[in-house]
Design a protein that fits this description.
This protein has 11 helices and no strands. It has 260 residues and is an all-alpha fold. The chain is globular and about 60 Å long. Belongs to the ABC-2 integral membrane protein family.
């Protein structure tokens, strides 16, 4: 252990966190601007063109309904992309070997990657919300709960990104997590429609979608209406986040597929 890490035990963690933040900031056109542009196109389609023409909830325009889902979708996608791409590239290029011999403990390792990814995801979500104010005014029924759910969602998908990066064999495998798992679950989780309007058995099946609870809990906190209670939405989301955290900690603590 170096003298610096002996007297400043948080120095390795801070250094790794700074490195991860600088990594996505250096390519901000790809990591921040591109998802914001994509979300803006969604907002234009569902806000400017359909916002006042469709109504899926009494008392709310379609734009007010769909905007919370688009915000949390931006948080989810970008948080996952940050941890999964960063850790996988470190494995692929061999840089993870140098990192593993540094005095960074597994919890510090996880939290450095997690906090950087959460920062990226929440930044994108915040900008999407700011842009959405052009198309719809949100009531923000419970702003603290909305922020809490966004934090839980970003933390959850930061852990999932770490796990995916460890298990992925190549870039194609990594992209499959986004294209064939996250994307369908997001779209089927009630981003564009309330599951209460679905006929059985599809409405019942939607309750088996873990992303439904993130989306519904976040929307419920913003507009005050949801398909499930706060207790259930936050309980399920927090429970999944906790399981994924311990799963990631176990894999990283063992060095599973991280060492050559």
């Amino acid at each position: 252990m170096s003298a610096d890490s002996k007297y400043y035990p948080w120095l390795p963690f801070v250094t790794l966190l700074r490195k991860e933040i600088l990594r996505f900031m250096r390519v901000s056109t790809q990591t921040l601007l591109t998802p914001i542009v994509t979300a803006s196109l969604y907002l234009f389609v569902f806000g400017a063109t359909l916002g006042d023409r469709l109504h899926v909830l009494p008392g709310f325009s379609y734009a007010q309904f769909v905007v919370p889902g688009l915000i949390i979708m931006g948080v989810i996608n970008n948080t996952f992309a940050n941890t999964s791409s960063s850790l996988f590239m470190s494995r692929y290029l061999g840089g993870i070997v140098d990192l593993l011999v540094t005095p960074v403990s597994p919890p510090q390792f996880i939290m450095a990657y997690t906090l950087a990814a959460m920062l990226r995801g929440l930044l994108v979500g915040t900008v999407v919300w700011l842009i959405s104010t052009v198309f719809a005014a949100l009531p923000w029924e419970s702003p603290l709960l909305a922020v809490l759910m966004a934090v839980i969602a970003s933390f959850l998908f930061a852990q999932f990104g770490l796990i995916a990066a460890i298990y992925a064999h190549n870039f194609d495998t990594l992209s499959m997590y986004s294209n064939f798992l996250i994307l369908p679950l997001v779209y089927l989780g009630g981003v564009f429609y309330p599951i209460s309007i679905l006929p059985d058995p599809w409405g019942t099946f939607s309750y088996l979608n873990p992303l439904f609870y993130l989306i519904d809990g976040f929307r419920h906190a913003i507009i005050g209406v949801g398909d499930t209670s706060y207790l259930v939405a936050f309980g399920v989301s927090f429970g999944i986040a906790t399981i994924l955290f311990f799963w990631a900690a176990w894999l990283i603590g063992k060095g599973y597929r991280l060492r050559a």
